[in-house]
Request: fold
Amino acid sequence: MTDENITEQMSGMGITPTDVEAVLDLVRTVGILQNYINDQTAHGIADLMSTVLKITNAIMSTDLVDVMERGLQDPELDKALLNPPKVGFVGLLKQMNDEDFQKGLGVMLTLVKAIGRATED
Reply:
């Protein structure tokens, strides 16, 4: 079969030469991964995934995700990201009167303390 005949047959099935090249790239990638993956690599990946899943489970069992999601969707955050305010020491002291700032600072300090306690275990 010539390349032209193969292309005609493939075009009837909706497969283009670009599709064939993509499949070949995928096969080559799998070959590279087969050569790379060994017991030590698989064990390292498993350890990493175990840690990620433990952290994910710990985070999901708290209200942290919901609070962070709502905070990240705040329109004021978008404005600050586009035009970050410059805040000095006096500006920081002024923010201490804001109830939302006080709550956020309280949560952050509690988180830092919890991390500190966790380092003692």
About this structure: The two ends are 70 Å apart (CA to CA). The chain has a mean pLDDT of 86. Residues 74 and 120 are 36 Å apart (CA to CA).
